[in-house]
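hey so i finally got around to running both of the ones u sent me last week. sorry it took forever, my laptop kept dying halfway thru and i had to restart like 3 times lol. anyway pasting them below in the order u listed, first the sequence line then the structure token line for each. didnt double check formatting much so if smth looks off just lmk and ill redo it

first one:
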Amino acid sequence: MGLSRRQLLRFGGAGSAAVLVGAAAVSSARFRVPRWSDDPFSLGVASGDPTADGVVLWTRLAPDPFAPDGLGGMPMHPVTVEYEVAHDENFQQVVTRGTAVATRELAHSVHPEVTGLAPDRWYFYRFRAGSVLSPVGRTRTAPPPGRPTTRMRFAFASCQSWSSGYYTAYEHMSAEDLDLVVHLGDYIYERGWNRGREGMSVEPQFQAEAVDLAGYRLRYAQVKAEEPLRAAHAAFPWLVTMDDHEIDNNWAGDSPGLGFDIYRIPALFRRRKAAAFQAMYEHQPLRIAQLPSGPTMHLHRRYGFGDLAQITMLDTRQYRDKQACGDGNTVIDCADRLATDRTILGAQQRDWLIDGFTNSPARWQILGNQVSMGQSDQDAGPITAVGTDSWDGYVADRNAVLGAAADRGVPNLVVITGDRHQNHAADLRRDFADPESPVVASEFIGTSISSNGDGADMTDSGRNLLAANPDLKFFNAQRGYVRVELDHTLWRNDFRVVPYIRRPGAPIHTRASFVVQDRVPGVTAAWQPDAPVHQPEPGVAAAPTDNSPR
């Protein structure tokens, strides 16, 4: 499935380790550059995981991104890729240059880690392969840890099923004034498509479920071929993680999800995970610290923004126990979900997370989280009916994390979440079994970019959730993303939605805004209209959904 860390280090002794994963190439390296018949930068450029003095850049050479073998139409041999970073988009004030070597082992992707940049400022970057220049990307470094910082703006998104509709939301996101984008998972969907978007057919190589390296590479190529997504990557640095569809719907730790039966054999599922992790690394702006080692990948990490914010990216898939009482569907009497030894984070990640509460100087502690942390009771009566794929299936870990935040005096804990294909604003209690338990944090769940089709402002499910969960303050099931602005006194959360995605060109508006005040846990409505701003057009059929069981 590729090169192990040990192999990379061994190559490093020979002077070419870093080039294999896209860091600076040795000056003596000489590699052939093909004569391009098509644009080798068809999948765009990206940057990510910024620090106060640097950032990781990304591109992948793929003149034929949909080639069925997943190799992007590239030759066998390595190719030298040059990069440069400048103060201006015309590259008259270049601050650093370097080369990286794109190899077949990593699908001719490169991940140069640029250092020595000034903190808290914007830069422009581009790549060159032979005589061809890439599109220009824009990125920025973070303010140094602890430095007084006035304001931060970022957006978060998730769940972009290609078949369900267009990525119109990213067109609008690219025009926002943001410092960062956070993607919380389901960047691709592994399933086979049996129908395309309206008026579009599905190519044969996308009709089968992705289970091997070629299949996963094609899924990433499919979404990255979308201009709105490429534009959003080029406009801002990103922090990325995964949820389940990057591998297999509802997978959990070493347990496969709901895909092909044959891949429930442990050895075959490990092979499938290894392929999925490698394809993710090949297509995202990730550092060498995230380079997979077979069926494992280190994705939980922290991002700091001066003295204002610390974003802790969680991994709620790789270390969790299998879902309690089934595969994550709704349960009523499920004692197993309350077991004290059940974990969604794993002991090591949980301890690392809790220790970070104490050690961070940031005013706002933000958890980048995949599945709903707050209780989502689906019965408005006396019984509690919850799904077990979310934190409701791992109550001990939820109580440990929220209890530690309370005990350690974390003043401003905010959880940002994806997965649900809905917008939620909710309070988080120390213990949801006790209605009098104090509110200790806030959770904002962002809707999908495209999954589940056009959606609706309100649904029967939404009305039921609002009635059954007093801590849930808002529900919406349209498509879009969430925009956040924070300073030292206030967090403002804008739910940005589009009225349709089954065809391109939708406008965007802010459906509702909520705030969290400094040292006042819980969400407060800042603005919310009394009625939906937009309803689906009469007589128009809904877009096909991604058929997710959630």
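and the second one:
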Amino acid sequence: MGGVRKLAVSFVVPGPCGVAVRDRLKNLTPQDERVLRAVGEHQGALASGDLKARCADGLEHGADTWAARKRELTALSSSRIAGAITKATHDQWALARRCQAAHIQKLAAGINMLRHRLSLPIGEKGTKRAAGGYRSKSEWFRKSRRLAMLEDRHATVVAEWQAGRVRVVRGGRRLLNTRHHLAQAQLTEGQWRQRWEAERWFIGADGESGKRFGNETIRVTPDGEVSIKLPAPLAHLANAQHGRYVLTSTVAFAHRGTEWADRITANRAVAYRIHLDTQRGRWYLTASWQRPVVKTIPLETARARGMIGVDTNADHFAAYRLDPHGNPIGDPRRFPYDLSGTASHRDAQLRHALTRLINWAVRAGVAAIGIEDLDFTTEKTREKHGRRKRFRQLISGIPTGKLKARLVSMAAEHGLAIIAVDPAYTSQWGAQHWQKPLATPHRTMSRHDAAGIAIGRRALGHPVRRRTAPPPHDRSDRAGHRTVQAGPGARGREGTRPPATDRPPGGPSPNGTRKREPSAFNTVRDAPGTQQWVQDSLMHTG
């Protein structure tokens, strides 16, 4: 086992802590849309200015600067709107800070790999664990120039990190760069401008427990009536008392509608957000709230009814069902998906595959799904795999982050636990110990199916290999019997036979099974001790 790294301990993934539902605002009048656009533009401008002030504060941010920014926004809107804007600003700044740290780690990984490969002789072959040297002097020279570029970029980002400077774009950097490639995006300048402005609007409000229907700024009644508390400069647009504007459209949340109704009836906090889909020309209302922290079930409880091991690949999930003792049951199952195309198409494909997987797990009666705790941060760098561009694209295409979020939230609705295991050697050891033994003329076993068994066994706490002890040297018992996976009370388990002294001569065995009688003597050594030995006279030589 030399060179094999220590495996991380499997754990039960905590369940989701938030819920979000969405419904369309239908049949809005032109006046309703004008009011929504005016509110979005006004509050969006306030959010942009607040984000600029927060980025200027950097690491000097504190409670005093936060209070000062909130007082300035309160005069132009309201206290609650100012609180929602400043909170969204802090979340956006913190997200940019985390992305900056991840970028630093990625640059450091690329620099270390370049230094390693440049230190090797030209033409030296690599191994499975480490890349080799470069194949020519020209490639070595180009990579040395790239190393200098990455080191300069790394130093710049580290200096920004230490100074607390982040780079944030309200509306999204991708949409901003699309402005320079309108032909490729098949957009006109007017269409892009409309999308850009809509993404920078801010029409949202945080929930407040104890307030009427859980939100004082954007209020939704149990009948679905939506009303908005207008900011002070737009109070003249109100059509109801206390500076409120009531929309003609009503909402009815089909998904989790009962849970949402219970919360607003009890005046518990519910946050709302209104946004415009410019491609479809539709307005949507999103309601979200927090769930109480639910304690995850113990690992032993999750393993009690077996496991489904899932191997994540670039185009499908390979799953296998195992009993509590780690034995495969039935045939492997594959759930394909296509991650090409738009983001909405990829998300729909992933949700459809996960839905089929979870429904199968519910029908199988298991309590948990075992999955790898994947993180390809060090594998995605172009410096490690060199010219293997297709392999890097394959690794980058595996949905790791989105898969974790989707699977945990969807499985929690069906009472299933998710057990994360160390992904090390699952494909290699699964193919070594399970692919060939389970392959039959009527069952095709792939390397991914065998990896699903390895993942499931690791989630159950069993080793990947089928037996933990080596086979004996011969049929004698000097090496001991193989260890078994099943417990003493399991039917059909492997074990020792009762000794012959436990039954009367010629009688049945204690457990009621019949034992084979001794066979005929095959050698002289098997003859009874009473036999007389007589020396042949022809062999006597005197």
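quick thing i noticed on the 2nd:
Residues 519-542 have pLDDT under 50 and may be disordered.
anyway thats it, ttyl
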